[in-house]
Design brief:
single chain; alpha/beta; Rossmann fold; eight-stranded mixed beta sheet; 7 helices; disordered C terminus; Methyltransferase domain-containing protein; SAM-dependent_MTases_sf; Methyltransf_25; transferase
């Protein structure tokens, strides 16, 4: 059962303060970042999903963390630009990627705040795993605009994250400016992080309303999405010439109404 903890004394905390605490959590917990992948078989299996997704060309990976996904992206890409705000996890990502790909010049790591950083170029694929749930709802429109601006014509956004079922494993907080959870590190220190458990159908509908062509499907307690932004001229998406933005769902894996 989900543990709900009210934070009535923190009602004046804003997004910036909550996000700063989130960054502090990932910096302090860099050495523990990979533990869920070691402990949860479903996460290890989820890594293989990348091999089935339309990753191609020049890839931008947002919130790359310790690089669990980066080598798999590099194996499918012409180049990878991996961005994260925490230098501690980037150091681990560099080491992991080097051990998998050797001295490949095709992977570049960038330390930057994703809420301030703007892509310097366009990419064929924008990929982010377990990042969308860390974006406060009021910042989602700006985030999706950044993703759209980063995509070359015909490019696709690919995203993987936790669905509502995973909330059972979290200590969910209430009374904060965004959906949040309380995380504890091995040393006993506690941090509040943004944690939005998106419903696959609601996310599909939201993106479609923004003009994206999108497909979101469930994989166990997680979801995997592939989306293409609306063209800048307001015409039909590249993948479906002459068609309105679609709201495609896998009939076997989409959540019930």
């Amino acid at each position: 059962m989900t543990h709900m903890t009210p934070m009535t004394h923190m009602t004046h905390m804003d997004d910036d303060a909550l996000l700063a605490e989130q960054v502090a959590y990932y910096r302090a917990g860099a050495a523990e970042y990979d533990r869920p992948y070691a402990e949860r078989e479903e996460l290890r299996e989820l890594l293989t999903v990348v091999d089935e997704l339309p990753v191609r060309g020049d890839v931008l990976e947002l919130a790359c963390g310790t690089g669990q996904w980066t080598p798999r992206l590099a194996a499918r890409a012409r180049s990878v630009t991996a961005v994260d705000v925490a230098g501690e996890v980037l150091a681990l990502a560099r080491a992991r990627t080097a051990s998998h790909t050797g001295a490949s010049p095709t992977v570049e790591f960038v330390q930057a705040d994703l809420f301030e950083w703007q892509p310097p170029r366009r990419y064929d694929t924008v990929f982010f795993a377990f990042w969308l749930s860390h974006v406060p709802p009021r910042r989602l429109p700006g985030f999706w605009n950044t993703v759209a601006a980063a995509l070359a014509p015909g490019g696709k956004a690919i995203f993987i994250d936790d669905g509502p079922a995973v909330a059972e494993e979290e200590e969910v907080l209430t009374g904060l400016p965004a959906p949040a959870a309380l995380r504890q590190l091995g040393d006993g220190s506690q941090y509040r992080i943004v944690k939005v458990f998106h419903d696959a159908r609601a996310l599909t509908d939201d993106l479609a309303a923004r003009g994206w062509s999108v497909r979101v499907r469930r994989v166990a307690g997680n979801f995997v999405g592939v989306a293409e932004p609306p063209p800048p001229d307001g015409g039909a998406p590249t993948a479906g010439r002459g068609a309105a933005p679609s709201r495609r769902r896998d009939p076997d894996t989409s959540p019930p109404a």
